[in-house]
Amino acid sequence: MNLRIRLALRLEQWRRRNLKELHPLQQLFWESTLRCNVHCLHCGSDCIASVQTPDMLAEDFLHVIDTEVTPHVDPHKVLIIISGGEPLMRKDLAQIGRALYDRGYPWGMVTNGLALTEARFRELRKAGLRSITVSLDGLEEDHVWLRQHPLAFEGACRAIRLCAAEKGLVWDVVTCANQRTIDHIPAIRELLWNLGVRDWRVFGIAPMGRAADNPELILTDEQFKQLMDFIVAEREAGRHVSYSCEGYLGSYEGKVRDHLYQCAAGISVASILIDGSISACTSIRGKYYQGNIYKDSFWQVWENGFKPYRDRSWMRKLEPCKDCKAFDFCEGNGMHLRREDGSLMLCHLNRLGQK
Fold first, then answer.
1. Burial 221-256, CB ≥16 within 10 A → b, else e
2. What are 146-176's pLDDT values in tens digits?
3. What parts of the chain have a pLDDT lower than 50?
């Protein structure tokens, strides 16, 4: 690793330390439903909650916004991201979005696109929809296989076309690469660029939720490096392709993302889950939940909780972080990759052979 990147990483470490002290709330995820219209093989859910779990009442979430968030923040500086399940399963999504917009909050959503008709898209835009992320994980056969729905590819492509034709919308496409699709990544990029995509994020799949029982979904170490090299080449060619936010990547830092590695979970990112649990990213294990809106003050939890997130020295006691020379930069990897017992599902440096 060259001196310039090492200096940048050290500056990022100091910046992150200051951010932990300030912990400004900048993104708030709301797990608004567990209902979904597909049955993805790689769903990151714990798969503990029943699909019959009722949606959180909109008034419960908005009550937290009004009484626990708005008095302490500038609403224009907090992005609320509505997730699921599939948020489009909620018939009241536009009404909720409009309520947030009227309160000054920019809002967005993550969707598989299957239910995003043009009429629904227009309704959401009128309700103030600011940003949207659409998932497309492969060419048609592979995407349908992964999403387990015959119309999943058609729906995702329709949603992408709607976004591409819309001015003023912040949007991107995310792709979860796996063993079946890794060699098709260049063809997927061609498909997306032809659809109008100019901002593409690529993820690996972690062995959590349903993916824990599907080892073929997890990239091998060689394939993971193949993905990194592809992203580097794409960025050098001037295309905006980036790897997801998770994981310190050693010699690839500064080459595959617009920023150096950081896990903002519990530092500038929080979430309210379907049962009221207060967490950070929605895929983080239950052990790391910090409270519940039905019995705790969200803002008091945000201000005084999240200690395992903001001080990750506890990870130094566990393998493979113990005695790791890169810990100052990595800080134990993303919180969503920690199991209930604290062990790490994936070490990116190990995968890249750099540890």
1. eebbbbbbebbeebbeeebebbbebbbbbbebbbeb
2. 999 999 999 999 999 999 999 999 999 999 9
3. 46-49
> pLDDT value at position 183?
97
Summarize pLDDT for 27-65 with one digit per residue, the tens. 999 999 999 999 999 987 644 445 678 999 999 999 999
